[in-house]
Structures are given as C-alpha cells and as structure tokens.
Request: fold
Amino acid sequence: MLGPDRAGAAGLKPRNRPARLRVGTLVRAPFSWIRPEPWGIHIVPADAWVDPSRPVPRALVTHGHADHARAGHGETIATPATLAIMALRYGTGEGAVPAAYGETIALGGGVAATFLPAGHVLGSAQILLEHAGERVIITGDYKRSPDPTCAPFALTPCDLLITEATFGLPVFTHPPIAGEIAKLLEARAENPDSCILVGAYALGKAQRVIAELRAAGHADTIWLHGAMAAMCRLYEEHGVALGDLRLVSDAPSKEALRGAIVIAPPAALNDRWSRRLPDPVTAMASGWMRVRQRARQRGVELPLVISDHADWGELTGTIAEVNPAETWITHGREEALLRWCALTQRRARALALVGYEDEDD
Amino acid sequence: MQHFAALLDALTYTTSRKRKLALLADYLRTAPDPDRGWALGALTGALDFPAVKSSTIRALMMPRIDPVLWALSRDFVGDTAETASLLWPAPQDGAGAPPPSLHEVVETLATLTRASAPGVIAGLFDRLDASGRYALIKLATGALRAGVSARLAKTAFAQGFAVPLEEVEEYWHALAPPYAPLFAWAAGGPAPVLADLPRFRPFMLAHPLEDERLDLKDYAAEWKWDGIRVQLVRAGGAVRVYSRSGDDISASFPELLGALPFDAVLDGELLVRGSAQGGTAGGAASFNALQQRLGRKSVPARMLREYPAFVRLYDVLLLEGRDWRSAPWKSRRATLEALMPRLPESHFDLSPLIEAADFAELARLREGARDAAIEGLMLKHRASPYVAGRKAGLWFKWKRDPLLIDCVVMYAQRGSGKRSSFYSDYTFGCWDGDPEAGAELLPVGKAYSGFTDAELKALDRFVRQHTIARFGPVRELERKLVVEVAFDSVHASKRHKSGLAMRFPRIHRIRWDKPAHEADRVERLRALVKD
Reply:
C-alpha cells in the first residue's frame, strides 16, 4: 500500500495520493500486486520475481548483465538470447523457460507476462505484466538510440512504468555513436605506432563498438582480451556479424598490434594484462565518460561517450510518451528523475533496490 | 575556439609528458594567429579576466535550470564549469551564429564588466558546444588546470618549430600574449625587439659530479645552499623575482622588491633568516622555514617578521646596461664582490668561496657539510661564461652523500601513466620501539623512485603476493620487506603520525635478505632532525 509515509518519501503532495480503485466489492490500492522488495520486484499473485538479486524459485530476467541475471533460481524465464548468455556465464541452463519477444506467458494467479525488446543488449527485454485490468511495464535497462546488435526498444502503453535511472541526471546526454566511433578511428590514424586499447563491458558494449566500427568501414582485425571471446561468438551465433576477431594472446608479436584496435574489459585497462600491448592509448566506451573527472580517475586518455542506457532525454522522454498513471524508479540516480516527475506533476516514487551496480557502462 | 577546446580536452586526458608535448607542438604549428598565441598565454596562466568569477557562471545557470537538478548535477560532476557546460540549454532557434574564434573570445572577455559579463557569456555559450563552453569558462575564470607548466609550453614551442629552447625562454618573458613576434621569429623572421622590461633569463645549471676529480686551479668551490634558486631582475623601473622554472614569484617576496637599488639581473639562493645554514646568527634557517613563505599570493605581516627572506648571491648576469654573461666566471665574481657594498645587508649577502688546498681537503669539507645543513658543493669553472642550461664541464654540483635508513614497506599504490599497472608508490615505516617487545611500525615516508625497471617488476610482484588488505587503491602489505631509503634531510612535521618528514626520499636498495625486525627505529631518524 502506498501509505502517507511512503508518499511523503517520494516527494508527493498529498493531493497527488493515488485514488483507490473499487474492484468487485473490495477496495484496494492500485498495483498492490506488485511489491518492490530490496532484492527484487515481487509479482505477488504468481509468486515470481523480476531480476532478483538472490536465488528464488521463479525469476523473470530482463537481460544477461550479472547484476540482473543471477544464477541459482529454480526457474528462469527470459528471452532465448538472455538464457543463452546466462548459460554461457553460469555453465548451466537448468530451469530455463524461453519467452520470445511478444509472446504472452501465463504466470498463474491471473498474471500474464510479455517480454518486449528493450534495446539495451542482445536479448534484453522490458517485461509487460497484466493483472486485474492493470498494465505494468518493467523496463529493465534500456536505451532508445539505435544499436545494430539488438532489437530496438518497443514503446508500450501502460499504467505503471517501472524505469531504470542509471544516467538519471540532466548532465547525461549520449551523443550519436557515429561521432564517437569517428574519434576512435581518428585516434588510431594519429597513432600508427601505438594500439588503441578500448575498455568496454564484455556483454553488449564490446559487440556494439565492434559492430559500429564495421559499419564505419573498419575492416581490419580487431583484437580481443580473452574474456571477450566467448560472448562475441555467442553474438555471432545470434546473427550479429562482427568481422575478423582475434585474441591478443594469439598475436605473433607486440609489433603485430601496432596500429590495431584492441578491446578489453574495463578492469584490464590499467592492469598487468595491458603491459603486453605496444604503447597503448587508453580509451573507454561508457556513458560515464561524459564527465571529465570520471575519465581522469580511470586514467582514460580517449573517453568515448557510448552507453547502452537511456540518457536523461530518453528517460524523461519515455516517461512523457508512455504517460503512465504512475512511475516507479528502480536504480541509478533516482533523485533527479523523481524531481523531474514532481516538476512535471507526475506521480512517482523511488524504489530502494539493492544489488544493482553502476556497471562500467 | 573548438580547436582550443579540443586541445584542452586532450591535454586534460593525457598523463604522458611526451604526448602532451606532441599535442601542444602540433597545435602551435597548425592553429592560426593570433589564436595560438592566446592559447599559449591561457595555458601558462598569462591571461586574466577579472570580471568573470565562478559565481558569475552559477548565476547564469540559475534562471535556466531547476535548483534541485542543478545541485544534484553539480554534486555528481564535482565542477561548476563542467556542470554548466553540460547543462546549458541549446538555443531555441537551432543553429545560431557560427562558433567564435579564440581571438574573438579573448577580445570579448577582456572588455567585460561585472554587469555586462552574464549577457555576453550567454551569447557566446549559444554559439559553442559543451566542450567549447567548458573551455570558455575555464579560460574566463583562469582555472585551466591542463597540467601545462610554463616550462612544458616553452619546450613544446621549441620542439614544434625546431628552435633552441634557451632562445625561446629569453624572448618569451619579454613578450606578452599573443606573442606575435615570437611566432614570427619561429617561422624564420627576425629576432623579437625586446623592450626594457624586468624579464627572465634562462638559468645556468650544473651537472652532478660523479667520479671525476677536478683541479681547484680551474674550478672554484662554493656551498650549494638549501633554499630556492632565484633570479632577481630590475629593469625599466620594475623588479621581479623569478624561480628556476621562470615563474614570477615576486608576490611571495615583497620585501625583496624594494631592496635592489640599481638595474641588474642577479642569480642567487633565496633563503629565510635563521641559524641552521651557515651556523651563525644572521644566517639562513632550514628549508622547512622557507617553505612557510612559498606559494603565497599575499604575505601577512607576521610572516614577513618571522621568516624574513634574503638572497645569497651567486652570480651577476647583467649590470646597469652591460651584459656580463659572455664574460668568464672570475670577472663576473669580481664584479659581484665589488657590488656588495652597494646592496643592503638586510636583504643580500654573498655566497662565500670555499678555500681548500686540494680536492681531498674539499672532500673533507663536504663531509662536514652535514652539520651546516647545506645541500653540498658547487664547482664552477673559473673561465665559464654564463650559459643557459647544463653545459658539460662548466658547472658541477657535488651533493653530500644521502642519509640512509632501513625501513619496512607497509603500503603500496599504483603509479600513473606508464606505471599505472605497477604498484610503484611505497609507504614505509620504522619501529617505534623494540619489535621483539611488541613495537609497531610508524609510517615515516613515501617513495616512488630509485629502483630499476627490473626491481620495479620484482617489487610489484611482491606487493601482489603479500597484500593483506585493500583500501580503495591502496594495498596494505605484510610487514616483511626491508628497503634502504636514501634521503637528503629530515624535519619535524605535523603532517605525519611519526612527526617527521623526509626530503627527497627514494629507494636506495631493496634488502630482500634483511628480516623486518632488523629495520631501524623511529628514534634513529628523529636524531637526524636539524631544525
């Protein structure tokens, strides 16, 4: 129930308190069948959880990033690509229940679930939940800008929008990716004796950067850190062409890497692994690179503002377009988005979910 | 302006000195006049626009964004200029006027008043992207922080146009932004005509004396005083004090500005009064005392009283219209000695020559130098002209041997740039009593040099294998590895728990063989304090 204390915490004025609906002879609050708990969103009538951060009997998983897709659930309902990613990462496909985009699944307890594209990474989904005449969308992580490695975000009407807010500050504007890829190629041309080492999250970001490099006409071998290889193969198996990829560990010599583009997980940028590279120029593909200090802290010389999350304009624009009766904000910089909702007279509240990280996006 | 903004961004993100030089040299070669000259002035802090403050920028934003969203953004970004540059709303009418050139921006900023600043800056913002707006704010508020020293800028200039660095330095300080005559000269034009101004002349420097033995018939010896090397210049009715890098530090030492009664360029050591150096009253205090005076924009009266500064003179470069630099050292020295009666004793004295029968006696005197808290000896060829930089065979510095102490490595942190994958910064400690009787290690210093590349690899491996805890970027280590730390002196300091601070500590030797409990105790270090 959204009592007065919670409404206060969410910064709502009393007159904005949700109206009570009359269902049959019972009086109940809207969306009371969806209950946010610190470790995930509970779909009460079906006893299922969305992106729980601890093992549960039945989980709906929006996408394969580790902070959303944990191992050890009894049953895992997700898109086939997300299930494949989880099987690759956790080595088991036990309890996997595939849900194709657009296919509606009855969860029991009168709840229907439909997975819809979120445009975040391969297989990523928003989850539409329908129960007792109410439509709820859980966006998971999403973005609106085009991405050749995954299906585009499907804008879907709903009564309650549960949105992410990773880049929920007005300073975050992700520029068009073509310009960032051009910067990368320019740096490569200017440093023929070095290699350009790009830090990119191993699932999603790395493949998107590679695919965009290919789209920009870069046909040379792209060299990978070992941790990237399996995920790139999985993407290719799902129809995302990535061109000629090779492992840095298979390079015949340091010399062979001069003038090359190398992609590694962010953690490897300034670690021992990178010592084998010829005088690398350190780049990083992340939405955080919009802020200079973030880049400097990590010793990044070539910041590339490339994010797989919605920026401020997309977050607020999506809320405005969907125009739900209510918005809940799951994780990220929820304060600013909450403030924006208040300024635009929208009913909203922040959920205190644990376990979601500021991943290196 | 976009070209300058891109340069500023690239310099901000680059940690390597070599790459910074290349970036700057390339910009100076390719940017148009007078933009490149303004850029040079901006990067080296030679431009000042008093009408624009950080508060001007904030005031400009307030009507344009919700204050809560501003505060949340500012908190996250951590910098007002950057936050404003990112949050500035794009002009409604779409593509407005084309972006201004750096020249236009500088000319505009120079004419601003407190009242006109907000409107004019808003107009410029509308014509720039986020990166351009950031550069504009940093330029206007004088806080570029791109990690470019005057020295680096001059070196880049010399590199970019393949001209001698000494000549760049000589002309640079006589000219003002946008340095048009300097660029014209670099492009093959005539040497700049220099006005009668108190400008900096590049210092003559010394090579370290290794194993050579010098004949004292050819070389004169004097003490190497432990202060800061300065150049005092009076010309055209003004006086300046320059540091070794050519930075104008006049504001920190106002008492010297009225003390030079004639036009001259003098080279000497800046010291404050005390008894530690030279041993007598009226001598110089330790470097620690001088540090109280460094880096101040204005000096409180109490500072002037408690730490009065004076210059111990080494050399004369110019005197009353005559350039002495090509004359041999012994003529310059004679000129300097003859000059002393004309200088007030309160602010000047002469660095005395050391009388020694032979080199062996000089070596003995140097050994004794420890007690006088001086850095070592200088040996100057009696026939040497005063030439910029380090020329082989002319001047030598013969530092006293360092002090040594055995310490235990306690913490390690990664370096930056090329060393960012190595744990190359070490905090070490000494025992605060008998380690067998339960004494603890107290951190006494930090060092990140003195080892070879091979030793760095071994130290890095040691750190990774002996980590017992992590605090952010810092690793705490098993108390196991002893290093012999070399340092020049040690002083009382409130900054460290041990109450001690070393000067120039470096790793002298890694004592893989020595057990930790045999490392030195803090009291040994404390006994070496000469404050």
Observations:
- Residues 204-399 of chain B form a domain with the D-amino Acid Aminotransferase; Chain A, domain 1 fold (CATH 3.30.470.30).
- The CA atoms of residues 53 and 141 of chain B lie 6 Å apart.
- Chain B has three domains: 2-141, 204-399, 403-526.
- The radius of gyration of chain B is 27 Å.
